[in-house]
């Protein structure tokens, strides 16, 4: 029995689904393959998964709608895959809450590498006691060990894996202008990150969650032609 990370594959092409399932299973990934949103909902009601691979073009409810719906109450990482290559589709997928985006056709090894990269970043490994694990800024608290964010009133604020990693990077470099390329490197690594505009999308999503006025941001400021500035004092404990 495979005891590796649990991945839910939502893919209506049975041949592609079988190929990915065989390849992932041979690499110690526990894969459950379903073909549409209804089957996905049934699978999620019966067990939890560490990551979802979601096809964009599905019968019935499409991947964008499913991703938006999942993000209402779930923080599970999502990799969206599709035959569409247009930037607008990638942007939409990321805006709906996807953590990464891969265009068909792709090598299963690349998909596996992206899955493992996200799982490494979102794993709940025991913290090393000597490392500072808590960041505090403007009343907010970012807990690296628990991978959660608490608002000034104590309420938990749900973040996707990509949003969490970006906020972590900003907390590590407060009051310093970071370019999009630098943010991609800090959050995904030089060879794993999506294209540059995904950072703008993630910044927009973060602003919606931590700014009092997302359209007039005080914490995450845009520095024209240069990048972004996390304008606040950050303490670590």
UniProtKB/TrEMBL annotation:
As for subcellular location, the record says: Cytoplasm
The record places the DNA-binding region at: 132-232
Iron-sulfur listed as a keyword: no
Where does the record place the modification 4-aspartylphosphate? 55
Q: Name one GO biological process term.
A: regulation of DNA-templated transcription
Keywords attached to this Swiss-Prot or TrEMBL record, sorted alphabetically, are:
Activator, Cytoplasm, DNA-binding, Phosphoprotein, Transcription, Transcription regulation, Two-component regulatory system
Q: Which GO terms describe its cellular component?
A: cytosol; protein-DNA complex
GO terms, molecular function: phosphorelay response regulator activity; transcription cis-regulatory region binding
Record-annotated OmpR/PhoB-type domain positions: 132-232
Q: Which residues cross the membrane?
A: none
Ranges for domain Response regulatory:
6-119
User: What is the name listed in the Swiss-Prot or TrEMBL entry for this protein?
Assistant: Regulatory protein VirG
Q: Which organism is it from?
A: Methylocystis bryophila
């Amino acid at each position: 029995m495979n005891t590796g990370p649990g991945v839910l594959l939502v893919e209506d092409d049975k041949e592609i689904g079988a190929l990915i399932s065989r390849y992932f299973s041979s690499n110690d990934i526990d894969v459950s393959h379903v073909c549409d949103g209804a089957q996905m909902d049934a699978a999620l009601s019966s067990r939890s998964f560490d990551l979802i691979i979601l096809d964009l073009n599905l019968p019935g409810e499409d991947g964008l709608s499913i991703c938006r719906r999942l993000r209402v109450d779930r923080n599970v990482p999502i990799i969206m895959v599709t035959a569409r290559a247009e930037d607008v589709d990638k942007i939409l997928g990321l805006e709906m809450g996807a953590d990464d985006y891969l265009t068909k056709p792709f090598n299963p090894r690349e998909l596996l590498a992206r899955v493992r990269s996200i799982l490494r970043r979102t794993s709940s490994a025991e913290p090393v006691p000597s490392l500072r694990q808590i960041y505090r800024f403007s009343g907010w608290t970012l807990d690296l060990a628990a991978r959660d964010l608490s608002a000034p009133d104590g309420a938990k604020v749900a973040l996707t894996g990509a949003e969490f990693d970006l906020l972590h990077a900003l907390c590590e470099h407060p009051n310093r202008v970071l370019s999009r390329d630098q943010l991609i490197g800090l959050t995904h690594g030089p060879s794993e990150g999506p294209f540059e505009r995904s950072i703008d999308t993630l910044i927009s999503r973060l602003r919606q969650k931590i700014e009092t006025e997302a359209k007039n941001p005080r914490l995450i400021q845009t520095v024209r032609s240069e990048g972004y500035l996390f304008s606040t004092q950050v303490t670590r404990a």
